[in-house]
Amino acid sequence: MGKSVSGDEMTPKEADGSVMPENGVTPGDEVIFLAPPWKLMWWKFREHKLAVAGATVVLIMYCIALFAGFIAPYGATQRMRQPLAPPQIPRFISDDGFSFRPFVYGLKGELDRTTFERVYVPDTSVRYPVEFFVRGAPHKFLGLIPTNLRLFGVPGGGTLYLMGTDRLGRDVFSRMVVAAQISLTIGLVGVFLSLVLGIVLGGMSGYFGGAVDNIIQRLIEILRSFPTIPLWMALAAAMPPFWSPVMVYFAITIILSMIGWTGLARVVRGRFLSLREEDFVIAARLSAATEARIIRKHLLPSFTSHIIASITLSIPRMILAETALSFLGVGMRPPAVSWGVMLQDAQNIYSVVMAPWLMLPGIPVVVTVLAFNFLGDGLRDAADPYAGLN
């Protein structure tokens, strides 16, 4: 008679006494192996803490740009009676004690006996409570609905300069919020146009090869050989001075797109060169599929995630390009408001010494660029969800 085998001897055990499955796959591993790629990408992206933080910041920035007219306490071109006034910081504590409602002190002008210039100091005898949903300068909510409702402000003829005022007495914080509409959307529009040019020309170069590849690659090399800043300045300076801010906006977008598509085109070309001889592409050709269908249905979807990561990393370059052009005076022009236009006021040492708050528009540029870079790094890692899986 054969020796009987107990259940404990048939089932292998781990060192801690838990039962090991016969195929060596735990329930958690089975969930990973059966999950669709998009879910694996989300799981991997979620593990990238900086990428999640970057995505949160980007979402907040675009929400601010979307509701800019409602968030800004004043209009972007509204002039106050106090030019170069310092920031007014909301307070909760005064000489009378603690206050649950934030308030700001009024400002009074004085003559600086050293520089003989007018300066503003807090007037502790006058307090203005900060209130929400107040009536202010008229604007269009979401660009469509006329209203004068603002998110916050101070009543009774008071002022609330969270980041001070510029030379013309315009509130820096309000202008910075409104400027986000141009500075952030120019990156999206520019990247969209660059995406179309990069995919079309890069795909043709990598898929067809030969003379088509040589012509497109020589064109890319010519464009990349020009110094970037002088080329931007020359093209932007060619715009007529009588153009409206809207026309200048679209012209700057087209200029940035015409220059920024070369990097994506090189990436797309390399991917097409590596995929055009794969079995699924050959099978599609044998099935009498057209070249356009092979590119659209088979090649592009195979590295869509990589394109998304490249686009995310291209948006901050567009934002920096517009900021640099506007800062140099050949990009957006007043009365249009962008972060680069606002930084023009901080081009001299006088502004840095006497009114350092005029440099504050550089902060959202840095924050947005870093957030997009972190987001792009996370998307790039999540683009290969099977990396690291055994």
Give your account of this protein's structure:
With 390 residues, the chain is of the alpha+beta class. It folds into 2 domains: 88-160, no CATH class; 174-382, Orthogonal Bundle (MetI-like fold). Helix content is 54%, strand content 13%. The chain has 15 helices and 5 strands. The chain has helices spanning 7-10, 27-34, 37-47, 49-66, 68-71, 172-208, 210-225, 228-237, 245-275, 279-286, 291-299, 304-327, 339-343, 349-354, 362-382; strands spanning 91-94, 97-111, 118-129, 131-141, 145-153. The strands form 2 sheets. A 3-stranded antiparallel β-sheet has the order 1-2-3, with no helix packed on it. A hairpin with a 2-residue loop joins strand 1 and strand 2 (97-111). The longest helix has 37 residues, at 172-208. Residues 1-16 and 18-27 have low confidence and may be disordered.
Architecture blueprint of SSEs:
Elements: H1 7-10, H2 27-34, H3 37-47, H4 49-66, H5 68-71, E1 91-94, E2 97-111, E3 118-129, E4 131-141, E5 145-153, H6 172-208, H7 210-225, H8 228-237, H9 245-275, H10 279-286, H11 291-299, H12 304-327, H13 339-343, H14 349-354, H15 362-382
Antiparallel strand pairs: 1-2, 2-3, 4-5
Helix pairs in contact: 3-15, 4-6, 4-15, 6-7, 6-9, 6-12, 7-9, 9-12, 10-11, 12-15
